[in-house]
Amino acid sequence: PYGPDQFVALVMLVLAVEWWRRPDQRRWLPLLTAVAPAAICVSYPAIFVAGGLSVWMALVMFFQRRRGWPGWLVFNTVVAVSFSAMFWVASRTQAAAELDYMQNFWKEHLPSLTSPLQFAWWLLVTHTGDLLAIPLGGEHGASTVSFLIAACGVAALLRQRRGLVLALCVAPAALNMVAALMGRFPYGGHVKFSQYLAPAICLLLGAGGAMLLANRRSSEQTRRRAYVTALALLSLIAVGTITRDFCLPYKSATDRRYRDFARWFWFSMESSGEVACLKTDLNLEFAPGTFHDLGWSAMYLCNQQIYSPRRARGEPVDWQAVSADWPLWCVEYQAEVYRYDTAARDRWLDGMRRRYKLVGRERFVFPVFDQRGKILFCTDAVEIYRFVPLYHLPEKPAPVK
User: Fold this and answer.
1) Could you give the C-alpha distances from 207 to 15, 17, 267, 275, in angstroms and in order?
2) What is the pTM of this model?
3) Tens digit of pLDDT for each residue in 127-144?
4) DSSP E strands: which ranges in 158-298?
5) Which of 53, 149, 270, 363 lies 20 to 30 A from 312 at CA?
6) Which segments of 139-162 does DSSP mark as H helices, in order?
7) Nearest to 12 by CA among 60, 47, 44, 64
């Protein structure tokens, strides 16, 4: 979902800027109002962008004495109704199921005002981390250069008395901060959470970079060389990123191993028997949380959907085809971090033995490392049970009670 976060933020920003630049044209605010519901439907952080733009437009109309308050009220009404509808239809249930878990998962990115010093330190760490990893950066202060350039951009806009441009850039982030203080959405953290801020961050980086490059003490030729060098470096970053992704089309070696296993496994197994996934075909789960909490099981399910020929054809398991020459392979994904209910698994096996003979079991382990391949997070596994029928019974196995 994070690419759409950036896209809809950019679209809304462009429409808002055109509304500001072209007060003689009345189409921009209605267009922004029409886009807002779709943006909120595909991007949770779009509400921060829409809310930030609402505040910014109010400032523009107040300080520049512009007309348009009725249109602004319509825009706010549409945003409020759209967000309320989305919350009622989807977010409400999701929050009830996952909010406690996600608050614990996001705890480093949900600040508190109980200690002003700790909050100030958290702000520094956050803004020199993944939040400002544009065009390069990362955690542990790796985005310090971007932070300093963006700070120069803020200073440049203040010095030039371009407060409305600055408000345009920071208003969505300010609403995100309010949501983070309420424990509802992380501020900072992984760069994926701040994709909706990328257009505003780029504006601040551009303002700061321009201020640093426009050194009045330097000659025109020196400044021109500085601009060319900066553009060359930015282009080199883009080309280098594209080249890296072309040569290494995966996020980590763990991702590659999961993908390569799925490419081999589902095709090979379905070429030698009838394959049933305990989760997707039998709706069985012996370790609660495996497929509900954030984990590597999502990659297992995604790769199964992509590389299983049967699923590509949209066909169910053919229980009638199971025979001594065409065995039934039951596949189970096991996550190490969850408590496994061995008794429930044994009850399922006992039920299966009434119809089938268990003739083999095999286990493939999957060590899960960090992106650099140095820290072992856990060791998940795929367990495969091979059954042949005791007698011909063209029925789906009864569910475990």
Assistant:
1) 20, 16, 53, 58
2) 0.72
3) 998 899 888 888 888 999
4) 274-277
5) 363
6) 144-159
7) 47
